[in-house]
Structure to design on (336 residues):
């Protein structure tokens, strides 16, 4: 195996603690060297051997660091990603990639000019629930697809305590926070839609940012509906797919975020495995319109696969699965 990729994380908030550090520190293909902590130095309690820099500039000046994780607030993604690329670092940036398609093009052009890899953190491709939906669709058991619903519902009626989350900016609100997940899932299953329309609202009391959205993606003979809201007291199934031969319902049951938040290692045998009773419901129609009901268990969810892809993109020049085309299509929907 080639030498590990030396990585640095620009922030050790919730995202750094849950979605990045556990994988960079347990995967032998990486060496987690440093973090940026401007104020409170929290990372040492979890990773005592990690260097804590006071600024992004210090981290970017570290010649050993090859990969930089940009996991800061949405409005900083473009500037920090560009700085890291210009410093000669490969970059893994969280969603949204930037604020506009024009900014994304600048980032890709910068990556090409510097010879660095630009990669996007679309971890929900490796959620157990989504992979179950993908597998059922690809099995052909549903026949020709006729209607699809993907939802990301929450009940959070109170405004967030972090001011930047509730400030009206071009990259704030639910469209830029959660839509990139389910847009990406729809695009990798069905490709770019022939057309689409979009509805957004601010529904919570005193909210000035978008906290509800619905996209309708048209693929000619069927539509895909992507919906999310913060005032959904009782979520319905997050994934509903209808076809000419059957229907599949699946709740949002991936356990990785909850497990990581409680400190479970990605190397734990129980990591990513849905509990009993989380199975998706597949109903198919046979001869004489007879219905058959099956309960489909999900395979193990594992964000390790994303980091494996990052490693092979850097070391082996492999094609990263979240392509420039995928990100460009996504930005077209987000900006509309």
């Amino acid at each position: 195996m080639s030498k590990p990729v030396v990585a640095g994380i620009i922030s050790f908030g919730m995202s750094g603690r849950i979605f990045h550090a556990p994988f960079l520190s347990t995967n032998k293909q990486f060496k987690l060297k440093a973090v940026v902590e401007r104020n409170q130095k929290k990372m040492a309690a979890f990773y005592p051997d990690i260097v804590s820099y006071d600024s992004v500039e210090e981290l970017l000046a570290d010649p050993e660091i090859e990969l930089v994780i940009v996991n800061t607030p949405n409005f900083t993604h473009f500037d920090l990603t560009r700085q890291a690329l210009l410093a000669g670092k490969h970059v893994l940036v969280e969603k949204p990639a930037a604020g506009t398609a024009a900014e994304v093009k600048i980032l890709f052009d910068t990556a090409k000019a510097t010879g660095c890899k630009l990669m996007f953190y679309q971890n929900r491709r490796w959620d157990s629930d989504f992979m179950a939906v993908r597998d059922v669709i690809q099995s052909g058991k549903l026949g020709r697809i006729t209607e699809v619903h993907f939802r990301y519902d929450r009940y959070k009626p109170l405004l967030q305590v972090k001011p930047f989350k509730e400030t009206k900016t071009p990259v704030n609100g639910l469209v830029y926070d959660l839509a990139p997940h389910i847009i990406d899932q729809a695009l990798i299953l069905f490709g770019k839609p022939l057309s689409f329309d979009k509805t957004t609202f601010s529904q919570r009391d005193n909210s000035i940012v978008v906290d509800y959205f619905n996209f309708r993606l048209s693929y000619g003979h069927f539509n895909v509906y992507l919906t999310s809201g913060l005032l959904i007291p009782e979520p319905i199934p997050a994934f509903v797919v209808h076809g000419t031969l059957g229907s599949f319902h699946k709740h949002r049951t991936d356990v990785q975020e909850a497990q990581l938040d409680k400190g479970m290692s990605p190397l734990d045998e129980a990591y990513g495995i849905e509990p009993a009773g989380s199975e998706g419901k597949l109903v198919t129609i046979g001869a004489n319109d007879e219905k058959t009901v099956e309960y489909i268990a999900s395979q193990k969810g594992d964000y390790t696969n994303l980091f494996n892809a990052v490693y092979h993109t850097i070391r082996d020049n492999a094609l990263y699965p979240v392509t420039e085309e995928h990100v460009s299509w996504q930005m077209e929907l987000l900006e509309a």
